[in-house]
Amino acid sequence: MEPVSPAFPLDILATPLPLDGSAGSNRGVAGLSRIAANNDVEAVRAWLARFHDTPTTFDNYRKEAERLLLWSTLQLGKPLSSLTHEDFLVYQRFLADPQPREKWVGGGGRKHGRRDPRWRPFHGPLGASSQRQAMVILNSMLAWLVEAGYLRGNPLSLSRHRARRAKPRVTRYLTDEMWGETLAYIAEMEQETPAQRARQARARWLFTLLYLGGLRISEVAGNTMGCFYARRDSAGRERWWLEILGKGRKERLVPATSQLMTELQRYRLAVGLPARPATIEDTPLVLPLGKSRKPLTRSALHLTIKTIFEGAADRLRARGGEDAEGAAEQMEAASAHWLRHTAGSHMANHEIDLRVVRDNLGHESLSTTSLYLHTEDDARHQQTEDKHRIHWQE
């Protein structure tokens, strides 16, 4: 069978009738499907529709489903609903080295828009952990399609499942040395022109927000400065909070320490805003350079963060010293989530109560309606205020 070509993203993907899965060999019993899907693309879209309210999860799941669909039709010449257990063994090897590279892997190390003709499903080979994650997601998708009656069986259910191990300690975080290099690099960024000053002010505020707030990059992109608000504690002291709508659309309160509020005011004045935000303000937490007041996308924030880490790594290399190259390579691999792990690790290392760390990072939901929990909130705010600080070089 002649494979389809070229590769298109899932949102505009259309496959010819022989490969669309309408007659796949693993299709469920006719008339018993519980979803209104006539082919594989429609079935995958039905599965993905469950995650539209969680953009990060949706993007990750779409990426893996999309890669499988494209490989199945373009490379194997089979519909997804005809894939066998053996096919998935071949697919996992493909993930480790997508070939031919020009068809599957984007060039130049850049991410291109999904409608850009240079778009590709991969940015390079997947490591072992990324391969496992891909197969976990696909197994979940196939199991759901079986439950929905679209597929007769899940070919991945035949895979060998290793015993569940305890989660390892977090390793993707910045050491004290790497964190100090990052802060020093941002503090030393050029500030001779208005554009340079704006870039440095944004970098300083973004890294402050990610570190002191322990936020996810999606939370920075999806919330506004109007989410800051003040309330009095039981002793009459004013405390500021940042109310975040986070992962799974769960709300949580992040202590806005005096340091965080000072940096917020510094940033707002630098971009021509009043020092304190209004509660109804829709200004994004981080602004693009220039006069625009539109929120930055997660991709734009990610690129900004990666650029800073790369600059800090170059600074470390230039200074030299023992294991400078190894530390620089780690910094170049760092991302926004490393900052979140760094924040959590530093809070724990400074002996902040782990329940405080848990609530600050939003690992469990937080209620603010109970007076009892309100009192606990004040204690959490005080511990964060006292022990979790950022040390900018002035």
Briefly say what this structure is.
With 394 residues, the chain is mostly helical. 48% of the residues lie in helices and 5% in strands. Residues 1-6 and 365-375 have low confidence and may be disordered.
List the helices and strands and how they pair.
Layout: H1 40-48, H2 55-76, H3 85-96, H4 101-104, H5 128-147, H6 176-187, H7 194-213, H8 217-222, E1 228-232, E2 238-245, E3 251-256, H9 258-270, H10 298-319, H11 324-333, H12 336-349, H13 354-361, H14 371-387
Antiparallel strand pairs: 1-2, 2-3
Pfam family, one: Phage_integrase
Domain Tyr recombinase: 169-386
Protein name: Tyrosine-type recombinase/integrase
Helix content: 40-55%
- Strand composition percent: under 5%
Total strand segments: 3
The CATH class of the largest domain is identified as: Mainly Alpha
Number of helices: 14
Give me the CATH architecture of the largest domain, please.
Orthogonal Bundle
Contiguous low-pLDDT stretches (5 residues minimum) are 1-6, 365-375
The geometry reads as globular
Strand order of the largest sheet: 1-2-3
Secondary structure class reads mainly alpha
Count of structural domains:
2
The end-to-end distance, rounded to whole angstroms, is 66 Å
CATH superfamily of the largest domain: Intergrase catalytic core
H and E order: HHHHHHHHEEEHHHHHH
The name CATH uses for the topology of the largest domain is hpI Integrase, Chain A
Radius of gyration: 24 Å
Main sheet properties = 3 strands, antiparallel
Mean pLDDT: 85
Domain Core-binding (CB): 38-146
Biased composition (Basic residues): 109-121
Domain Tyr recombinase: 169-386
Region (Disordered): 102-124, 374-394
